[in-house]
Amino acid sequence: MKRADLIIFTLVLAAGLIGAYFYFFAGGAGPESTIVIEVNGVVVQTYPLYQEGRDEYVEITGVNGVTRVHLEDGRVQVVDSACPDKVCVNTGWIRNSAQVIACLPNRVIIKIVNAEDGDIDLR
Amino acid sequence: MGKRLPTVRLVTVSMLVTMASVLHIFEGWLPALPVPGARLGLANIITLTAIVFFGYKDALAVAVGRTILGSLFGPGLISIGFAMSFAGSLLSWALMSAVHRLGKGQIHLMGLSLLGAVAHNLAQLAVAGLYLEEIALVSLLPLLMIFALPTGLAVGLVSNHLARALAKIPYFRS
Description:
The complex is a heterodimer.
Chain A: H1 3-26, E1 34-39, E2 42-48, E3 55-61, E4 66-72, E5 75-81, H2 87-91, E6 100-103, E7 108-113
Antiparallel strand pairs in A: 1-2, 1-7, 3-4, 4-5, 6-7
Chain B: H1 6-29, H2 44-53, H3 56-72, H4 80-103, H5 109-132, H6 141-167
């Protein structure tokens, strides 16, 4: 390891940690936040983020097949999807507006939109 | 490696592409990693070794060839998976080559490999973001960057050993 390597290592670590902080904590989520599910760039479903005692499974039809989504109070995850790589399932729960679940082969996106961010793009 | 016969070069590059493709395919079989979209980057071992040992052009052939061959055994060429690994492989080749040239031996392969991994992640997310028209995907970059620290350093270390082992083969000594 030379000095340049240490600089590269430190920069990547610092950028990663700062970014991860934003990813996990800075996104924000309030009582007015909405879970938005898009297929092919079009909003197909919206749900309130917070709903006490919710334990609900919904099925979203993407371009390849069905994506099963699990909704709870304040968080959402994908439990199964018609895709080979399962990146979306692997993403786990998302809880704030900085986070997003994407299933590329099925073209499904799940994100959280805060009230103050306003206009959910209903195309 | 300046004065090699064209045939020797062709065979060398072909073997590098083969090795990189095998690593690419093998990596596809491994179970998914905890960070969405994260990869070990095993095939990058060959690209990086090619950059420092055989030159930028041969390394480019490896970077392009292994994504095409590797994808033929996986998702196929008309797929978002191929577009992502192609863009990632190309950008990481470009960044590693540029920094290798600018660094003039002052940067260890571990540093180069780490930069290559970050470039790969960036290109991958950019392609995925364009495909889904969702810029928010870039928020995954920090997680991938943290994950790239151990994998990038390991890949750099292996490439370093590989390049040293190659240098011991009299035939490749120039």
